[in-house]
Amino acid sequence: MTTRISRRFAHEVSRGFVLASGAALLCVLPTRASAQFDVWYHKYDAIRPTLSRLPGAGVQVPLLMVGEPGRKLPVIQAMVNGRGPFRFGIATGIHDVAVTPALARKLRLHSTDKDGRSNTYHLDSLNIGKLGFDNFPVTELAAAQEGVDGLLGGPLFNDVILTLDYARRKARFDPGALPPVNGKDIVEMRYVHDGDYIGVPVTIGTRSLTAIIDTRATGSLGLTPEAAKPFPLGAVRRGRSAARAPAAAARPFDARLGADLRIGEFTIREPFVHVRPLAPGLPTEPIVGTMLLQHFVVSIDENHGRVRFSHRGPATFATEDPRNVGGAYCDFTSTPASCRPE
User: Fold this and answer.
1) Dihedral through CA 26, CA 31, CA 37, CA 42, nearest 10?
2) pTM
């Protein structure tokens, strides 16, 4: 299952704003009252790494932003089985750790699959600075972002607080817990699609929703055509309009959302949205991606179900025009609506 998901999502990454793959892995939390939380928390126990080294002061490493303009994604360096360093993308939208075929060959990893239908390998160790993990399986990526050797997903973040400081280009891994949820800078972490993805409560216009946090998605806000139906969308190049997107839109397009997005105490004014169909079986919730996340310092505490958003500036702000994201631009101010490839 983990290999199938990783391959499918790795392929989708090359198409623009989509989910990365798989699921966020959650650990046991006795203080949580929900029995369903514990079920989801244990869902991927078999692939959970052993956290072997974590200094009390935490670990801080450089955060690299790798990719083309408008498509840069967070990457850190790690040592694998004592070799490296290698570049790994931080992937909050997957439930496993994955390596490229090239890295598997370089490390001479041997497949652990008995049926031979997919490639799953065993790693003895993975070290991010003084942070260490031991003895866990990894899957193989069929395709990956250029310049990246693999993806680090949910299992590595179960027992640490992961912080991505995009502006200062730093990633941190800390023990302990975030302060309690306050609905302002610290919000509840929710579980989406039977625990496969991590999400946070958001409001789009007047609608309260749960949005998936995906650090491997390139855009600001991603919606399926059906999910976009209730919201006014305007042409990227002609500004806001009261037109709405067709529910059956078959090709991806970018537009400015005619409504504000709210996360905790923060309001993003009429963000740009990427509307795209997804393959059957993928979640239909909104996706918050890197172009929006990079305006924050984001801390994820999976142990306690909390996410913190810190923003250096006013609580209300606007995001940039995603003209380099790709897809097609559509003008809904005209009838019929017109789209052109980018």
Assistant:
1) 50
2) 0.80
